[in-house]
Structures are given as C-alpha cells and as structure tokens.
Amino acid sequence: MTMQTAGIHHITAFASDPQANVDFYAGVLGLRLVKKTINFDAPEVYHLYFGDEAGSPGTIITFFPWPESRRGRIGGGQVGITTYVIPPGSMAFWEQRLEGFGIAAAKVSRFNEQYLQFSDNEGLRLELVEREEGPRSSWSFGGITADHAIKGFGGAVLFSVNSQKTIEVLENVLGLQKVGEDAEYARLKAAGDIGNVIDVPLANMGWGGGGAGTVHHIAWRAKDFAEHADWQSAVSQYGYQPTQIIDRQYFNAIYFRESGGILFEIATDPPGFAKDEPAESLGEKLMLPEWFEPHRAEIEANLLPIEVRVLEGNKQ
C-alpha cells in the first residue's frame, strides 16, 4: 500500500535582505518568527523560520537571506507559487492590507476557487485562498486578528520540467490523490487539512534559476521517526536515491530530486521548535547547534542585526 503524507511540512526559499525578509513575513503577513538560526552549511547566513504560533508543520516557510545573493528566476524545477490559506470572509481584509503596504495583487481562479496573487519584496510568488479546513491561527501581530490571520499553507503550485513525472511521484510515492484536472492544471490532494492541495501545470516549464526570490525545496510531512525511515525505503524502492537521514535539530530530513526537477524533502513532525527554547519566546534569540556555540561571538558579529517590528505605512 502506498504511504500517504499529510501534506507540506515546510517550504524553503532564498532571499537577500534579512531585515526586509522579516518585515515582509512578520510585519506584512503577520507570521511569527519562530526560529532564528543559521545555515548549518554556511554559518555566515541566517536561516529564518516563519509560521504559526508554535511553528506547526504545514505553516512553516523558511529563508536563507544572504545579502550577496543574486536574483533568481522562477521556472521549472521549483515551487512556482506558495499558497497560504486564510479564513472564509477575510479576503477583503487582505486586499486592503496589501494595498495599504503598496503591494500589487491580482485575483485569479483555479478549480472554482478564487486566489489573491502577489509577490514578496524579493519577487517570490505567493497567493491567498479562503478555506474552512484547518485550525485558525492563535497568533496576532500588527493588527491581524485570528479572524483574518493566515492559518498556514493551502498548498503550492509546482512548476515542473516534466509534469507527468511530477504528478506520478506525488501520487505513487507521496500518496496524494488526484482530484481534478482542467485544460491547464492537475490538482492533487494530501491527507491533511492544511498544506494539502497541490496544483501542477500540465504544460512543461523551462528551467528556472536559483537565487533570491525563488524556492530551494519543498518538504513533505512524516509523522514520526519510524515513519521517516519507511519513507526513505519507499523513495528508494521507486527508483530515486534519497539522502541519508539528516538531523536538522527541529526535524529529521531526507532529500531527493524528482524527475520534474524539483528538490523534495521529507521531514519529521517532531521534535519541533520548542526543542531548544521556550515556546513563549520562540525566535527571540539566535539559536545555534552545540557544535557552533564555541563560535557564537564570531557568528553573531558576521550577521546583520534583525528585529520583528510593527510596520509603518499600513493604511488600515
């Protein structure tokens, strides 16, 4: 029997300006900065995590903001659009909020749903959709109440250089169910209630180029460590070559690149972001794995200061 992921665990992207990144995702979108750490492979670069109050799987977008990074090009082999889900009746609030910050947005429709599409300060493509599914946010910031706050991911639009192969891996390896197809997209659905709706354009895309404003990888959920090991075996049996299991402090991870060019990760729900700091103060301190602690002073000196702040200019 095919295993089934509950949906997206997190999405990781590139950025260039750390403070502008915090201002957009915390200040404009009202997400919580749940973890401030570093790229373990490049400790001169932040790794910032934004999500709901607890940093729950299915809500987390993460960034490597590196001031020297080039601007990327969105295209095949990437998550093309990251979808956020908001409570029914809150779309007008978000239209006004984005307008208040001078962010251009446009409405589009797919599969009888209406989306509000816009880009972040680096050009990363985002959209909002209203759905009943999923618990409401318990995090309020910058004038965004739970009645309007982002609940987490609605899903994603995957840009593939081989759409049929990408659809096959979503169905046959990750256990998503194909629930619709029109002239432009196939729609697949995972088992969870957020981060669960994936649209794949049927037309193959030309290759994108990595850099600021593009997604590096998309991660799918494994409920625990035992299931994670089973996922590694399942991916191997399907003919892909997953990495070894890697400890990322807040989850374990394996990676593989599917045949449509997109880098997939499978990440464990546990242990979560309260592993190394209290839940009430998540994201307030730079957290380092133990092997970097002896170098804290040097690492902190090389990072630009950042702060979560309520932004001026919101006209609501």
From TrEMBL:
InterPro entries: Extradiol_RC_dioxygenase (IPR052537), Glyas_Bleomycin-R_OHBP_Dase (IPR029068), Glyas_Fos-R_dOase_dom (IPR004360), VOC_core (IPR037523). One of its GO terms (molecular function) is dioxygenase activity. The keyword Oxidoreductase applies. Keywords: Dioxygenase, Oxidoreductase. Residues 7-131, 152-269 form the VOC domain. Pfam families: Glyoxalase (PF00903). PANTHER family: RING-CLEAVING DIOXYGENASE MHQE-RELATED. This is Ring-cleaving dioxygenase. The lineage of its organism: Bacteria, Bacillati, Bacillota, Bacilli, Bacillales.
